[in-house]
Amino acid sequence: LPASMYTEIQRERPDGGNILTHPDYLDGNPDLIKPKKLLNPVKASKSHQELHRELLMNHKRGLGVESKPELQRVLEHRRRDLLIKQKKEEEEAKKLQSPFEKELLKRHQRLDQLEKEQEKQEDHAPEFIKVKENLRRTSTVTGDEKAA
Fold it and tell me: What's the whole-model pTM score?
């Protein structure tokens, strides 16, 4: 009924006193520049269009928004399997170490620790002692070269 009421008001006012005014550019005046609808930069971007296209395709297929593409799911599954396989191999390698290899590893770690401690002690020594040690090394090297 409200639509018919509006048409009755239109009929009663034929003098052009319409509630809505008509835009000037519809008159066909060639001097006026017709406005163009502004483009939304987000919707105009390629990534947005591709995402929208993918969403439409997923909707047509009946897939949910949360579901991942098949390729991504397969790649994640492969990565997960690879990580699990690597962890298993590392655990097996640790289990297969013989007592001899374990002892060698301990000794190697102790030697590294001793070398670090020696370097710390050398860093705290006065400079003239360091220079003196370097001189001794060079003198023994040149003495060995003369003997050979």
Answer: 0.27
